[in-house]
């Protein structure tokens, strides 16, 4: 495309002439005096509290009790068809498969199937305590992005050891080579008189299950 | 420049607008004070807010000082990750590129994530004239689009609408472009959101093309970051097979790590939350996940020129959080439409004249839409010295626009001169105004008809007397001769 290479040169040229003679800073001189780390006493407790403030449901449990907790959540959500992404450890997926229709994503589930699924069960990469956020990098146990978007209930297992204090620590753990989704509570809008309404296009119910001893 | 509203309104128009403005004032006052308080609470939680702010400002200033380098770096990172980068000098070029890209897919519709850049270039209109329907999917943008209205706030584009107005818009307009609103729709926000979910779901699942903007573009990794609340952004970025993102060249940040600053600054400044519900990061094309055909259109449209102004270029740091709108006494009274631009409020007053030039009186008058109280600077997460910029731009417009001061504050004063210069016109304007006075009682009115609107857009006018001095004079001193 000839036009686009002309435009490229024109834009870059215009930027260069605007900057001509000006100071060009060095990235090293950017002040970073904010806290790289927040001194949070009990990360899982803060995480729990902050997630709950978004009106997500939070459950704290341990690895022995966790399958029971997950089953309870799915039952209360009346979830019959549950999407289980590849790579979800058998200790979590097997109990679900015993009681529900589980849908694996290999071969890829159709959009319609995902739409008709009731829930999805995943892990996450990190949890951020200060902001009450879970981050999915869509690796094993988390599935491609559509899996956690179309079903109306998302149940996410968070290992307590994966909870960090704040955003800087979380980003340091993440590799932006692939897609990522930061989730803080259920889908919400405040567009109507700034009144918060949960559940617009994303899952309306978010359940975060903190597994204390993992 | 598009979006400038300068037609002399007929009286019914003027009255209609003024009535709507009373509602607007009410909606706006409630909304801005709510967000202001939420913001203050979550900002106070962080004892290093000022340090974050200083870093945010420095990262942006640094990026701008080496923008050419970072743009090239971003381009190669996106390309390496399987995306294609296009460059657009101006709005027309960007629109052409996007239209062409949509045409290549053979589709005639696209779903859109709320994006200031695409509003700035008038993309929806350009696509429409090429026979392509672009569906806005953000709830507020949907409201605005259905009503053929214009956004009035960066973050909450339908901030000037209350729930019963929204219900009416949904009932009237939804069926024209997809699933209709349920017959028993009430004005409960939960029901309204549900109606929007239903209306848009079929569009998300059907669409094969999505168009987005980006909050940040990371030079090092070629990543785009889209910050949102409703999940419509995730839908657009994930479901269709083709994605076109229009990104202003000032959106760049050098490295992934820099986001640790902005992902703290933006949500707290913007919606007053510790974190917004959804932030999506995408870096090029990922096999079996999301679009396989990904294009980024880098948009200049006046930005490189603004960059040349040492003081003015600060405005390019803006991360569009809209905190400055919510604290601005002028914005709170005038509303977003008064700025005649997609960028309203204090940031609009300094950005619009720079992006569009000061040749037009509408843009040249914007730096005057301020009381220089400084509240905007205090809340700005990237510490843009908006009051200083306003003064600087006032100087610049005076310098660049010969005869500017003869016309005083431009259109406003010239318009007033035009009204005062002819007794018939003055009489007409006063009669319109005094009818306004009778309609509004003594409460004060928001907006006078053009050209006096240029003055009342920035301040409250007291309700006019139901009889003007001239009417009184004519009634009492008929035949007395000289009127002046
Ligand atoms: S100027 Fe500052 S406060 Fe205003 S929208 Fe931009 S970043 Fe936010």
Give an overview of the whole structure:
The complex is a heterodimer of chains A (214) and B (484). In chain A, 50% of the residues are buried. Chain A has one domain (40-212): 3-Layer(aba) Sandwich (Rossmann fold). Chain A contains 6 helices and 12 strands. Chain A has a 6-stranded parallel β-sheet, with helices on both faces. In chain A, strands 8-5-6-9 form a 4-stranded mixed β-sheet. In chain A, strands 10-11 form a two-stranded antiparallel ribbon. Chain A is an alpha/beta fold and 214 residues long. Chain B contains 22 helices and 10 strands. In chain B, the strands form 2 sheets. A 6-stranded parallel β-sheet of chain B has the order 1-10-7-4-2-3, sandwiched between helices. A 4-stranded mixed β-sheet of chain B has the order 8-5-6-9. Chains A and B meet through helix 1, helix 6, strand 9 and strand 10 of A and helix 1, helix 2, helix 3, strand 1 and helix 7 of B. Strand 9 (180-183) of chain A pairs antiparallel with strand 9 of chain B, so a sheet runs across the interface. The complex binds iron/sulfur cluster. Residues 269, 318-324, 347, 379-382, 384 of chain B line the site of iron/sulfur cluster.
Topology record:
The complex is a heterodimer of chains A (214) and B (484).
Chain A: H1 2-19, H2 43-53, E1 57-61, H3 66-76, E2 81-83, H4 90-99, E3 101-103, H5 111-116, E4 119-123, E5 126-128, E6 133-136, E7 153-159, E8 163-164, H6 167-173, E9 180-183, E10 188-189, E11 197-198, E12 205-211
Parallel strand pairs in A: 1-12, 2-3, 2-4, 4-7, 5-8, 7-12
Antiparallel strand pairs in A: 5-6, 6-9, 10-11
Helix pairs in contact in A: 3-4
Chain B: H1 11-44, H2 49-65, H3 67-80, E1 84-88, H4 91-105, E2 109-112, H5 116-120, H6 123-129, E3 133-136, H7 139-146, H8 163-173, H9 189-206, E4 209-212, E5 216-218, E6 223-228, H10 232-238, E7 242-248, E8 252-253, H11 259-270, E9 278-283, E10 293-299, H12 303-307, H13 323-327, H14 329-334, H15 345-356, H16 361-365, H17 375-379, H18 386-400, H19 411-420, H20 423-440, H21 453-456, H22 469-476
Parallel strand pairs in B: 1-10, 2-3, 2-4, 4-7, 5-8, 7-10
Antiparallel strand pairs in B: 5-6, 6-9
The structure holds iron/sulfur cluster.
Iron/sulfur cluster is lined by residues 269, 318-324, 347, 379-382, 384 of chain B.
InterPro entries (chain A): FTHF_cligase-like_sf (IPR024185), LUD_dom (IPR003741), NagB/RpiA_transferase-like (IPR037171)
Domain LUD (chain A): 46-211
Protein name (chain A): L-lactate dehydrogenase complex protein LldG
